[in-house]
Design brief:
Elements lengths: L4 E5 L11 H10 L4 E4 L12 H5 L7 E2 L2 E10 L11 H4 L4 E5 L10 H14 L4 E2 L11 H11 L2 E5 L10 H15 L3 E4 L12 H9 L12 H10 L12
Parallel strand pairs: 1-2, 2-4, 4-5, 5-6, 6-7, 7-8
Antiparallel strand pairs: 3-4
InterPro entries: Phosphatase_YcdX_put (IPR023710), PHP_dom (IPR004013), PHP_phosphatase (IPR050243), Pol/His_phosphatase_N (IPR003141), Pol/histidinol_Pase-like (IPR016195)
Family: Belongs to the PHP family.
GO cellular component, one term: cytosol
């Protein structure tokens, strides 16, 4: 399966990543990507940038090295109410918002608590995708959350970094989540979760997992740039004039 969009990448601004935006863009071009999202960690993550980093993304060009740039954030889910750590006035200016559970921000609790948290952030309407759900530290009711994601048009991310050892134990869980998504009609996005430029556009493990579960291409929004951009418009994002020809 071919993927032309990477919806989860980090720059040095995240504090524990090692490449600049220009380096990531060059890597994206070398991998043949059409688009990639800049998704540095939101302010609650230790080492993350100040909220002005996100408020000022309007200065970023729409193309670097011939690859389209989407302005985004990996927001932290803060509590069981499903709140995230970015002001709506700022997130409304962005193209793309991932919501993720991170141990330094949200202490792992019970399966029911994690399930309620994920359901509430889905229903909030404030995120476009749920990040790296395979993390075994945050067990949850797969069927309930994936079904809600399908209902509210929130994407489920299959994260290549999770499948490559960054969150040990994620692989079998991601496979189960993808299988539930296939049956529920939920759509997926693919993220490298690159913290170094060489990993931008690396979907080697994602590709293998989706092949194993026979996941349908039409339910993966990153297989073509127009499919991804149409998803954003479905979610009420304004069309991006510079990407009209993609």
């Amino acid at each position: 399966m071919q993927f032309s969009v990477d919806t989860h990448t980090h720059t040095i601004s995240s504090g524990h990543a090692y490449s600049t935006l220009l380096e990531n863009a060059e890597a994206a071009a070398s991998k043949g990507l059409s688009l990639f999202c800049v998704t540095d960690h939101a302010p609650s993550m230790p080492g993350a940038p100040h909220f002005w980093h996100f408020a000022n993304q309007r200065v970023l060009p729409r193309f670097l090295h011939g690859v389209g740039i989407l302005r985004g954030i990996e927001a932290n889910v803060l509590n069981q109410d499903g709140e995230i750590d970015i002001d709506p006035r700022i997130s409304s200016q962005l193209d793309w918002v991932i919501g993720s559970l991170h141990e330094p921000v949200y202490s792992p609790s019970s399966r029911q608590s994690h399930t309620d948290t994920l359901l509430n952030v889905i229903r909030s309407g404030r995120i476009h995708a749920l990040g790296h759900l395979g993390n075994p530290n945050f067990d949850f009711d797969f069927e309930a959350v994936v079904s809600a994601a399908a209902q509210y048009n929130v994407l489920i991310e299959i994260n290549n970094s999770s499948l490559s050892g960054s969150r040990q134990g994620s692989e079998p869980r991601c496979e189960q989540i993808a299988a539930f998504a296939r049956e529920a009609g939920a759509r997926l996005t693919t993220g490298s979760d690159a913290h170094f430029a060489h990993d931008v556009g690396n979907f080697s493990q994602v590709d293998k997992l989706l092949a194993r579960v026979n996941f349908p291409l039409e339910q993966v929004v990153t297989h073509h740039p127009r499919c991804f951009l149409e998803f954003l418009q479905e979610r009420g994002q304004p069309s991006i004039e510079e990407f009209a020809e993609l």
